[in-house]
Task: inverse folding
């Protein structure tokens, strides 16, 4: 993969930074919030992914000599380029843990740094977190509906270029069991697996010979693609012949794969043929433009499919394609800042903030998060963000702080987990989310409230701007 250096950014970040530097504002402190406005896929939740990958990149982020030479050609002044030569991220980051379940319009991550440092990491932060959270969410939806069937990511060839690399990481966090993507397996320690393509079968004069040669190479993990010519007339019978030959060698055919036609019908008929031959242990894999809705339908048809291979619809996050995560200024030079909008939902919340997940005394999520000033540690009353008449007493409920210090002085403050550990954490957190937020159609919306103090601060700032 190409190396990510500090020019993995938008030009405007550098132009603003240049102006901050020249006007001696760059060392002023700033606080930015990362959040998104809408759950993807019309769903009721989002899986937060990409954080630990981001932290590792921020730790070593710098402008290389080649970067600086390039920027010189873009008319950046010498003294600013000298500043960039020494640039490192020294700030603090407070964040929800990677893999947690998050919802719209509340901070998921807070950056506290000098204005210039906070600005120069915006693009990479949004790029990594938005994409991986989108794909982890898509993956989680399929995991939820697929129950304990295996889910494999086959998407690299259909991904938006190298995005497929991060899609595989995110898919695993969202609950996939493995990927066909070898470099993702190598770098993120994700299990890799693969079957065979139609070209392999086509390259032989007959299908049986193709299956035999393949099986000889894979005594344990052989999966035969049975739909090249005629699934039930040739494909499955040829796979059965090879499975019997494998048995004679003390081996076992692992699975057959279906990749076209009515997958429920072919899975049922293939299952009958395999079982009649005493091959109950041979699994059935299916692929071809799967997504959570097709998987749901196949499950409802009792299709005996053990393994789903999912490509395009997973890695491109269809039909959304992007999570709308944003990075908004909340404090600058010690002063709270606000962005006013006609659209109430777009008015930002000033100050450095904390977010609490409200639970009952047993830790069960009650369906609301509350945003407060970071200095508050137990919230008595939570207010609706816009409706002055809606409020709720939460003083006697438990409140779990979600934003934890994950970086300080540019150093990572948490133990970096394996992707498998993040996936396991995500699975456990997802179990805590009540069913009504998980359904595909009209899911419940996880509520948001703001503390009395934060509400007052926001109103004061809005008034002062009106004047
Ligand atoms: N039993 C089924 N129930 C619901 N959806 C299915 C079922 N079988 C297949 N699908 C889905 O329907 C879509 C189109 O399948 P279709 O039958 O057109 O495949 P196909 O066009 O025959 O494949 P190919 O063109 O590669 O031969 C795919 O997204 C597939 O996953
Ligand atoms: O349908 P998706 O969810 O995107 O899953 C990936 C698809 O990629 C492969 O097809 P392709 O035609 O590229 O190669 P093949 O010759 O191996 O079938 C595979 O057979 C799947 O159908
Ligand atoms: O291993 C497979 O079957 C596979 C891999 C990538 C894309 N489609 C299928």
Result:
């Amino acid at each position: 993969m190409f190396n990510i250096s500090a020019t993995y950014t938008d030009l405007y970040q550098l132009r603003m930074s240049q102006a901050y530097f020249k006007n001696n504002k760059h060392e002023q402190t700033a606080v930015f919030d990362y959040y998104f406005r809408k759950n993807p896929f019309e769903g009721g939740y989002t899986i937060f992914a990409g954080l630990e990958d981001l932290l590792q990149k921020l730790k070593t982020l710098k402008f290389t000599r080649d970067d600086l030479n390039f920027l010189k050609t873009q008319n950046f002044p010498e003294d600013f380029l000298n500043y960039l030569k020494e640039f490192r991220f020294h700030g603090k980051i407070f964040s929800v843990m990677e893999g947690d379940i998050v919802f719209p319009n509340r901070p998921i991550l807070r950056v506290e740094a000098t204005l210039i440092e906070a600005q120069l990491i915006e693009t990479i932060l949004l790029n990594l977190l938005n994409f991986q959270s989108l794909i982890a969410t898509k993956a989680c939806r399929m995991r939820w509906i697929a129950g304990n069937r295996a889910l494999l990511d086959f998407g690299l060839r259909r991904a938006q270029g190298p995005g497929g690399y991060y899609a595989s990481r995110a898919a695993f966090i969202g609950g996939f069991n493995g990927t066909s993507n070898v470099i993702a397996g190598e770098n993120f320690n994700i299990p890799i697996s693969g079957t065979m393509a139609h070209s392999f079968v086509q390259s032989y004069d007959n299908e049986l010979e193709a299956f035999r040669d393949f099986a000889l190479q894979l005594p344990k993990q052989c999966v035969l693609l049975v739909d090249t010519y005629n699934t039930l007339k040739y494909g499955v019978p040829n796979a059965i012949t090879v499975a019997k030959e494998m048995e004679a060698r003390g081996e076992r055919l692992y699975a057959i794969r279906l990749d076209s036609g009515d997958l429920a019908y072919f899975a049922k008929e293939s299952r009958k043929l395999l079982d009649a031959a005493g091959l109950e242990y041979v699994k059935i894999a299916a692929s071809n433009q799967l997504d959570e809705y097709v998987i749901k339908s196949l499950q409802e048809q009792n299709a005996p499919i053990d393994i789903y291979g999912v490509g395009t619809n997973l890695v491109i996050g269809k039909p959304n394609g992007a999570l709308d995560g944003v990075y908004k200024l909340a404090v600058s030079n010690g002063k709270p800042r606000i962005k006013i909008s006609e659209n109430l939902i777009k008015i930002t919340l000033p100050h450095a903030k904390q977010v609490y997940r409200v639970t009952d005394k047993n830790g069960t999520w009650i369906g609301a998060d509350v945003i407060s000033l970071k200095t508050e540690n137990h919230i008595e009353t939570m207010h609706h963000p816009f409706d002055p008449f809606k409020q709720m007493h939460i003083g006697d409920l438990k409140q779990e702080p979600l934003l934890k210090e994950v970086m300080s002085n540019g150093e990572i403050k948490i133990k970096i987990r394996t992707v498998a550990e993040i996936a396991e954490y995500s699975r456990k957190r997802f179990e805590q989310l009540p069913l009504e937020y998980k359904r595909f159609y009209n899911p419940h919306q996880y509520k948001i409230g703001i503390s009395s103090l934060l509400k007052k601060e926001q109103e004061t700032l809005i008034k002062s701007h009106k004047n």
